[in-house]
């Protein structure tokens, strides 16, 4: 990035299409600016908008291969990514406009094309953008956008293999170099710990997976890492397990053992 902080001011998001009902939640006519502001924020909070295409100067502009632009809105903050660093800041609404305050950015070194794309996006967002029918339109640039759930919906727990990516203990997350996986068919959880294979009966109700006794083969793990990973898997897959899926990522957590697993759909 050319600067550690990018100024994104006066970004306009009109009430049509993308805001999904902003006009219907507007000022009730009593002149209370705070009430209008709160009502306008509700359609954005909790949503992630993904750029699905870009036109610049009337011509298509390709993003860096493998990258994606996202704008993730929390209650009062927005996080913006374009494949390299993350820009974070507050936002407020004024009438039918969204105004993004000064943004702080991470300082990660990335390949030059990605860093240039970050800079380009900050410059695009520095001017007002109008939203009509799923597009953020500026004087020279048009960003086509859609909700993340449309572009990349959450996977189902069943019907695919989940590869182990990380171990979770308290607030610490550690990556693993062991080829372990699990699969759930609706009644049975099958798994490979990297040392042993096994299965357990399993019932999914909402965001809780209730497991019966875990039956594993008895092959000894050849190294300390393998033993650590298997112990974490066994501790997590015991009794009631919390399930959270976001796109292609699965998090399993066991409140009793204080352990968890991070997995990714293959």
What is the CATH top level name of the largest domain? Mainly Beta
- Tell how many strands the DSSP assignment holds: 21
Category by helix and strand content: alpha+beta
C-alpha Rg (nearest Å)? 23 Å
Strand content: 35-45%
> What is the overall number of helices?
4
* Gross geometry: elongated
Q: Report the uncertain regions.
A: 1-42
CATH topology description of the largest domain: Lipocalin
CATH-defined architecture of the largest domain: Beta Barrel
Largest sheet: 11 strands, antiparallel
Mean pLDDT: 83
Distance between the termini: 33 Å
User: Number of domains in the coordinates?
Assistant: 2
What portion of residues is helical? 10-25%
Reading the helices and strands in chain order gives EHEEEEEEEHEEEHEEEEEEEHEEE
Note down, in words, how this protein is organized.
- The protein has 266 residues and is an alpha+beta fold.
- It has 2 domains: 147 residues, Lipocalin; 105 residues, Lipocalin, CATH 2.40.128.
- The chain contains 4 helices and 21 strands.
- The longest helix has 14 residues.
- The chain is elongated.
- The N terminus is likely disordered.
List keywords for this structure.
eight-stranded antiparallel beta barrel, Lipocalin, 21 strands, alpha+beta, 266 residues, single chain
Give a brief rundown of this model.
InterPro entries: DUF306_Meta_HslJ, HslJ-like_sf, Hsp_HslJ-like. With about 270 residues, the chain is α+β, with helices and mostly antiparallel strands.
Explain the layout of strands and helices.
Blueprint: E1 5-7, H1 33-41, E2 48-56, E3 59-60, E4 70-73, E5 77-81, E6 86-94, E7 97-100, E8 102-105, H2 112-125, E9 130-131, E10 135-137, E11 141-147, H3 148-151, E12 161-169, E13 172-175, E14 181-184, E15 188-192, E16 197-205, E17 208-211, E18 215-216, H4 224-236, E19 240-246, E20 249-254, E21 259-265
Antiparallel strand pairs: 1-8, 2-3, 2-4, 2-11, 4-5, 5-6, 6-7, 6-8, 9-10, 10-11, 12-13, 12-14, 12-21, 14-15, 15-16, 16-17, 16-18, 17-19, 19-20, 20-21
